[in-house]
Write a structure and sequence with these properties.
The structure holds two protein chains of two kinds. By secondary structure, chain A is of the alpha+beta class. Chain A has five domains: 135 residues, Four Helix Bundle (Hemerythrin (Met), subunit A) (Up-down Bundle), CATH 1.20.120; 131 residues, Alpha-Beta Plaits (2-Layer Sandwich); 60 residues, Helix Hairpins (Orthogonal Bundle); 179 residues, Histidine kinase-like ATPase, C-terminal domain (Heat Shock Protein 90, 2-Layer Sandwich); 144 residues, Beta Barrel (OB fold (Dihydrolipoamide Acetyltransferase, E2P)). Chain A is 45% helix and 21% strand. In chain A, the strands form five sheets. In chain A, strands 15-19-20-18-17-16 form a six-stranded mixed sheet. A five-stranded antiparallel sheet of chain A has the order 4-1-3-2-5, with helices on both faces. A five-stranded mixed sheet of chain A has the order 7-9-10-12-11. In chain A, helix 1 runs antiparallel to helix 2, helix 2 runs antiparallel to helix 3 and helix 3 runs parallel beside helix 5. The longest helix of chain A has 28 residues. The C terminus of chain A is likely disordered. Chain B has a single domain, classed as Rossmann fold. A five-stranded parallel sheet of chain B has the order 2-1-3-4-5, with helices on both faces. In chain B, helix 3 links the parallel strand 3 and strand 4. The longest helix of chain B is centred in the first third of the chain and has 13 residues. Chain B is globular, with a radius of gyration of 13 Å. The mean pLDDT of chain B is 86. The chains are: A alpha+beta, B alpha/beta. The interface between A and B is large, with 68 and 61 residues.
């Protein structure tokens, strides 16, 4: 990666923050009570995007940001009123700016039509107010000026330059010495200082500069190059540049003449010039009516404070490539495994009870846990960035459906693993669209039903018992269960007339092949159903639930693990094989008692548990360890619960431990294995499969018998 | 003795670009991300030159220039304004506050160094 690419990447990363700031600020501006600073902040953010974009020659971005910024400037100077119509344009401009950044990042062509359209709207807003500024302001083509390469004449020419600074020159930090040195760099110089206006000491007024210089310059540089030396001071000095006719061999004489006619001259060296001007600068600025800074800041020589301030500017955060963190996380996974192996070896060797060994192992375990947590914290990111994007999704969905919708978010600061953040965008987008498209009624229907015309979609997040819970809810019409049932029957997903609880009907929405109104909706339809959402969430080790109340709205609840790297598991035994069952699914474990076991039909077996009959599933059969289920009263029963509140009792041979296991994906090497979500390495170095209880329970509920997913991979 | 330059800009990209250009030219670089931090960094940086952005949170470039010019120790330090605007109004305002000169973003590294050399008389 070249140096410049690195800066470009840095710029895009900065853009993400800036754009987020713009979006947040604009939303604050939507309500009438916002602080003026909000507009300033939005302006600055857009301005920074423009500045950075200009540095990389991203002209589409620059010109758009410029117009956007101009409108914001008019808003902050109260020339434009941020009414809802204007705000709508600003929101769309913010979206468009984000698109342009994204297009630049991916080096693809942006949506020019959209850009042009918005530019037109922005220009309309700017109206005549900006007309004369425009040309002046948009000078973004990098100008390269090489001071030495102005169309330089071959033969040196002579110039007489008379230069007399006024007080502003000194006051603005400009230095006559620097200017004279710059002239000296252009060629040969002969410098005379004009001391005519230096008064006698008694009349000395140190606020009025009294020095002037005449420089005879013999140079091949152009007049433009000479003028460029005075670029910053032309408004604060008397300046005359005269080209002299070359007088061979006699140039010094003529000039000395001119000088002496005008004023008495003293020949000085550059060193003297330096000394004189130092004195003058000193006196001018001493007399000037500036109040010194408060002593604390002026004399803040205390090392500690100073060092700190410079540090905060450069090292408050660092950007680290995700690969590095992943590598660290992997190594910590290995560490956890090695630690488990070590403790097993120690156990086998019979040292486990030695207090020192025990203590040492314990602190090692603790340390490994702490390191793991710290790395997880590095990877943790607030959900804010995902939530922010949803505002736009909602706005676009509302526009497409013509509904009035408001998005309320809460718990944006809830942190989840970075990988999860990225993978949550699609499912959440889908759910938000779904809520707007299917959940909310149109304004007329809402009004008729006595609801506010504007529908609300709420997006919230919170940490709940070691997991992250995200809810997407709307205050729409709720799920039309009769219709859902009808569709499911038509599509053959359920048997006609099947007895289903309301919750079970709601869960039908997640079935593959159920896409309720894809035929009429271009928005959330797209042939993709909620089953995809569910699959994506499950791939993250999460669960989705749906609940709905007719006429009041629908709520989707997603629960996610905090990390994709480790899992708290229950180690179980099946036919001498160790497997891992995620603890989150486990409700209780029990030894089967004959009194609570009931047979149903030919081979069905159920357990009476908490006033409910739940199916008993022998995992040994599921994974192909045995042909026939073991007797119901053998082994241990583990009661598990799934998202859809479906419960089942897993029959296993034994339970022998509960511990954190490091998740190793199987899919890279083996593809998807039914009933298994991943694998892990145990303390003895053996591999154990991690069971996916969800899939097992679901498939045992469906028509497909559990036997059909018998696993052979485990041998 | 190396020449110390304090660069103040709220954009980390611009800070990075300026800092790279300055370091390549052999300057010692100090960075700050707004006017307040810029003023706070003065005692540590004790700069020979300051480069500042105009639009910044907390204290903008104009505020920074005024503060520097009002201080006893740093009032004669040259200050270059680095800005995307090249309007005369902005230049006039910057000058009124005490800015020494200006560079319009986007700058080329050579141009930036040339302007610095000119202002410092190098």
């Amino acid at each position: 990666m070249s140096d410049m690419d690195e800066f470009l990447e840095m710029f895009f990363a900065e853009c993400d923050e800036l754009l987020e700031g713009v979006a947040t600020g604009l939303r604050q501006m939507d309500s009438s009570e916002y602080e003026k600073e909000t507009v300033h902040a939005v302006f600055r953010a857009v301005h920074s995007v423009k500045g950075g974009a200009a540095a990389f020659g991203l002209s589409d971005l620059v010109s758009f940001a410029h117009k956007f910024e101009t409108v914001l400037d008019l808003v902050r100077s109260d020339a434009l009123d941020p009414d809802p119509r204007l705000m709508a344009v600003l929101h769309r401009s913010s979206d468009c700016l984000a698109d342009l950044v994204e297009a630049a990042r991916k080096s693809i062509d942006p949506d020019h039509a959209r850009r042009e359209e918005l530019l037109g709207e922005l220009e309309k807003l700017i109206g005549v107010k900006d007309e004369n500024e425009n040309d002046d302001d948009v000078e973004f083509e990098p100008i390269s000026i090489d001071l030495m390469s102005f169309d330089a004449p071959e033969v040196p020419e002579s110039y007489r330059i008379f230069f007399e600074p006024n007080a502003d020159l000194y006051r603005s930090g400009n230095d006559p010495v620097a200017i004279i040195r710059a002239l000296d760099k252009l060629g040969e110089t002969d410098i005379t200082i004009d001391t005519a206006r230096v008064p006698v000491l008694s009349e000395w007024d140190d606020s009025t500069p009294v020095l002037g210089w005449t420089v005879l310059l013999r140079t091949t540089a152009s007049t433009a190059a000479i003028e460029d030396v005075f670029e910053f001071v032309e408004d604060c000095c008397k300046l005359e540049i005269t080209a002299l006719v070359a007088e061979q061999g006699d140039e010094g004489d003529g000039t000395a003449q001119t000088s002496s006619e005008d004023f008495p001259t003293v020949d000085v060296t550059a060193q003297q010039v330096q000394e004189t001007t130092d004195d003058q600068a000193e006196t001018v600025s001493t007399k000037a009516a500036f109040s010194p800074l408060a002593p604390t800041s002026a004399n803040a020589g205390s090392e500690g404070r100073a060092v700190k301030s410079s540090e905060t500017s450069s090292s408050a955060t660092i950007r680290v490539s995700l690969d590095r963190v992943d590598k660290l996380m992997n190594m910590i996974g290995e560490l956890v495994i090695k630690e488990a192996m070590l403790s097993q070896v120690i156990q086998t060797a019979g040292f486990a009870e030695d207090p020192e060994v025990k203590g040492g192992l314990e602190s090692l375990r603790q340390l490994a846990g702490d390191i793991q947590e710290s790395v997880m914290a590095i990877r943790a990111q607030p959900l804010k960035q995902v939530f922010q994007r949803m505002h736009r999704i909602l706005r676009e969905a509302a526009e497409a459906t013509g509904k009035q919708v408001r998005l309320v978010t809460s718990g944006e600061q809830t942190e989840v693993d970075k990988t999860m953040i990225e993978r949550l965008i699609d499912p959440l987008t889908h759910m938000i669209r779904n809520s707007v498209d299917h959940g909310l009624e149109d304004a007329i229907t809402r009004k008729r039903n006595g609801k506010p015309q504007e529908g609300t979609v709420t997006l919230s997040a919170a940490h709940k018992s070691g997991r992250v819970q995200i809810e997407v809810s709307d205050n729409g019409c709720g799920i039309n269960r009769a219709r859902v049932r009808q569709i499911a029957e038509e599509k053959g997903l359920i048997a006609p007339g099947a007895t289903l609880s309301p919750a079970e009907i709601d869960s039908l929405l997640f079935l593959p092949g159920f896409s309720s109104k894809s035929e009429v909706s271009a928005l959330s339809g797209r042939g993709v159903g909620l089953d995809v959402v569910r699959r994506e969430i499950m791939a993250l080790g999460g669960r989705v639930m749906i609940s709905s109340s007719e006429g009041k709205g629908t709520t989707f609840t997603i629960t996610l693990p905090l990390t994709l790297a480790v899992l708290e598991g229950m180690l179980i035994q099946l036919n001498n094989q160790t497997m891992v069952l995620p603890i989150t699914a486990v409700q209780e474990t029990l030894r089967p008692e004959q009194s609570s076991l009931h047979g149903i039909g030919r081979s069905g077996r159920t357990l009476s548990n908490r006033d409910e009959l739940i199916p008993i599933i022998d995992l040994g059969c599921i994974f192909g360890f045995r042909e026939k289920p073991s007797a119901s009263d053998e082994g241990v029963l583990i009661v598990v619960e799934t998202d859809g509140h479906k419960r089942a009792a897993f029959q296993v041979d034994a339970i022998f431990d509960q511990r954190q296991v490091v998740i190793k994906s199987l899919e890279e090497n083996y593809g998807r294995v039914p009933g298994v979500s991943a694998a892990t390495i145990l303390g003895d170095g053996k591999i154990a499969l991690i069971i996916d209880p969800e899939e097992i329970v679901l498939s045992s509920h469906s028509d497909q018998g559990p036997e059909q997913m018998a696993l052979t991979a485990n041998g | 003795m190396s020449i110390r330059i304090l660069a103040v800009d709220d954009s980390s990209t611009i800070r990075g670009l300026v800092s790279r250009a300055l370091k390549q030219a052999g300057f010692e670089v100090y960075l700050a991300c707004d006017g307040v931090e810029g003023v706070g960094t003065l005692p540590d940086a004790d700069p020979h030159l300051i480069i500042t952005d105009i639009n910044m949170p907390k204290m903008d470039g104009f505020g920074l220039i005024e503060s520097v010019r009002a201080s006893a120790e740093y009032r004669s330090v040259p200050i270059l304004v680095l800005t995307t605007e090249s309007g005369t109004e902005l230049k006039a305002r910057a000058r009124k506050c005490g800015a020494t000169g200006w560079i319009v973003k986007p700058f080329e590294d050579d141009r930036l160094i040339a302007v610095i050399d000119k202002v410092l008389g190098r």
